[in-house]
Amino acid sequence: MDTLELDPRLRHASTFLGRSPKMLIDGRMVGALSSKTFEVVNPATGAVIANVPEGDKADVDLAVAAARRTFDSGVWAKVSPSEKSRILWRVADLVERDLEELAELESIDNGKPYAVARVADLPLVVDMFRYMGGWATKLGGRTIPWSLPGQFLSYTMKEPVGVVGQIIPWNFPLLMAAWKIAPALAAGCTVVLKAAEQTPMTALRLAEIIQEAEVPAGVVNILTGFGETAGAALAAHPDVDKIAFTGSTEVGKLIVQAAAGNLKKVSLELGGKSPAIILPDADVDAAIAGAANAIFFNHGQCCCAGSRLFAHKKVYDKIVAGVADIAAKIKVGPGLDPATEMGPLVSDEQFARVTRYIKSGREQGAKVAVGGERVGNLGYFVAPTVFENTKPDMQIITEEIFGPVVCAMPFEDDDLDRIGREANDTSYGLAASVWTTNGGTAHKLAQRIRSGTVWINCHNVFDASLPFGGYKQSGWGREMGEEVFHNYTETKAITAAL
To answer: What percent of the chain has pLDDT over 70?
Structure first.
């Protein structure tokens, strides 16, 4: 802690780090009932930056009871839609006020560069609360035309699903909290959110902001703890009506099993193995920059990272050389260093996972064009890596690496059906990008790709209004946009005889 306080680059977050961050349960900032804590580590140095409450089943029970009572008593339901909107906007305003502090916390907790958190993560958080705040006044039903004999008036209503358990990942900690909390509140639900144990700091700071924004006690509860204890208890809890999870496909399957007890509704935003497809008529310079951003943004720790790079044989050599050149020039370092372009992986566990895949790629015959090594001896840094000579059955092609590792493959075909089949040859279906100067070709190929998002001449482009989610083993349901409210509302049909 002393080292952090002496670091002149940490100008805003020291006060929060020094006041023993707490969980939010029923409107109060509290420690775990067991009094246990666990260490939070800066992945750039391995140093402990804080000790936070180790919530477990007892804390989950307490939080769910608060959310249940608050929902059933109508505390949040009685707040008018316009007032809900005002409160969500107030949260956005407070996040915007504390943007530098939150960006610093995100940097030392997750490893991402402060500059990236400040211009990407945090503005998207602010926009999400404002966008979803607007929906609080617009969620309604419709009248239904009647065809059978008789005179009836039929209409539908949208009602909140109830108590929502939310489990978020560590790659975009605060942004994922916003993706989950904002639409749930706009829909009228109450929330119990568990932050990722690797990156709990901004969620706990958000808990303080939610209190300051005067969200009624018990409407939002934010816990810290481990997945196998607090997360499992939340997913299985009989008083939770719906679970929303973002994370790995493997854990997503466990969530589904845990939810079966009371048949709670489930939405899942899971893994990906997204193709970036570069056609021979693409703007090569733009495609090189775009393909590099597709995989190296956020250290490759993106579920939609463009980790499979398909380039037509006519441009393949230029594309691989260009992406490798960008990779070699990326400045890897601590997130608080203004010169850093890529920080460390989030944890020693993730470092071991990514380096294990790099080793597997080499052993199975893939060629490392650049990278493939650890950077430095302190922290969890891996050099941006480009593989070529990859084959469809290699582990680095079939499995999600979740790191700054791209696997390049040439293709010769000009038949869009066959290109689409090759892109779809994966158990995932989260995202893809198509690079071409032919608009007709781009849209035809986009329709052949089985994924929830297809970008054309871009990658990793998001807006609060755009639905995001996957086909196949990339998940169930959609985040963001109007579509997200399918996750958090029930539709009631009412018919009256006239």
So the answer is: 98
Active-site residue, 303 included: yes
Catalytic residue (choose from 189, 303, 304, 407): 303
Contact between 158 and 486 under an 8 Å Cβ cutoff? The reply is no
Domains of the chain: 2-270+475-494 (3.40.605.10), 275-464 (3.40.309.10)
Q: What is the pLDDT of residues 108-124, one digit of tens each?
A: 999 999 999 999 999 99
Whether the CB-CB separation of 190 and 217 falls below 8 Å is answered with: no
Of 98, 265, 93, the closest CA to residue 184 belongs to 265
CB 49 within 8 A of CB 41: yes
- Specify the pTM: 0.96
SS3 272: coil
Catalytic residue chosen out of the listed positions 54, 208, 269, 400: 269
User: b/e map of 289-324 (b: 16 or more CB within 10 Å)?
Assistant: ebbbbbbbbbbbbbbbbbbbbbbbebbbeebbebbb
Burial of 165: CB neighbours in 10 Å, binned 0-12, 13-18, 19+ = buried
